[in-house]
Backbone:
């Protein structure tokens, strides 16, 4: 599915905003202008841009990558996010080369973000880190966030990753990162039917999203929840179910 088909599909689903990955869209100006115009026509906000800072995309279809300088890559995509009108960016974890400790990785990510953050602030773009890769716990993500120490740098909590990493402590971890959330990833894993009398509706069977939303609300977060799906069902049927479920639940929240 190319970026145009993706936007059309999101329009059909009634989505208000989208997160675009660097692997989804060529970075040439002609494509960026076309995508921005199409999103405007469809009434869809480009709410966030996500990049892998260590890889430069040579080709989207087929995907071809080369090694990138993280600082240059992030600065380039800050400009692209600004052009597209996205107020937020997720910058994936930067892994150190060779043998390195976890503390080395934490410091590397702090140092790189500090170099690029003034550019992001100038453009009015907040940057966030997701709990994934080598930083899957809330405590590790927060070490980077606190090391950067800026209101313009925060977290992109991936609810599903917390549950998959440690289900017993998942909601405790979400509680920790929610106060500095830029946006979040609402990952669905298994969707099934729920019932209200004779009426049925779709619901997530593994993650308690009502509890998740109560946590975010308690910490004043009212931003975008970017839907992801990682389950066994075909995404063509699972994603619409997940959207229906999340939309219904959001509307029910007091």
Residues:
């Amino acid at each position: 599915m190319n970026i145009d088909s993706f936007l059309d599909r999101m329009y059909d689903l009634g989505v208000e905003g989208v997160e675009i990955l660097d692997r989804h869209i060529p970075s040439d100006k002609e494509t960026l202008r076309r995508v921005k115009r199409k999103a405007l026509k469809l009434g869809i906000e480009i709410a966030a841009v996500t990049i892998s800072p260590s890889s430069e995309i040579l080709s989207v279809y087929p995907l071809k990558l080369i090694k990138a300088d993280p600082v240059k890559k992030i600065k380039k995509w800050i400009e692209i996010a600004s052009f597209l009108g996205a107020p937020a960016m997720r910058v994936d974890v930067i892994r150190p080369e060779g043998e390195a400790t976890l503390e080395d990785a934490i410091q590397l990510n702090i140092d790189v973000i500090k170099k690029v953050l003034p550019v992001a602030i100038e453009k009015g773009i907040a940057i966030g880190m997701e709990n994934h890769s080598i930083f899957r716990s809330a405590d590790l993500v927060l070490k980077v966030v606190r090391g950067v120490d800026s209101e313009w740098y925060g977290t992109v909590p991936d609810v599903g990753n917390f549950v998959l990493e440690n289900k017993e402590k998942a909601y405790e971890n979400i509680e920790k990162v929610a106060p500095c959330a830029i946006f979040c990833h609402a990952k669905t894993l298994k969707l099934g039917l729920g019932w209200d009398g004779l009426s049925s509706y779709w619901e997530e069977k593994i993650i308690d999203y009502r509890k998740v939303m109560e946590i975010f609300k308690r910490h004043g977060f009212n931003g975008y929840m970017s839907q992801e799906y990682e389950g066994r069902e075909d995404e063509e049927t699972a994603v619409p179910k997940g959207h229906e479920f999340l939309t219904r639940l959001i509307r029910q929240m007091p």
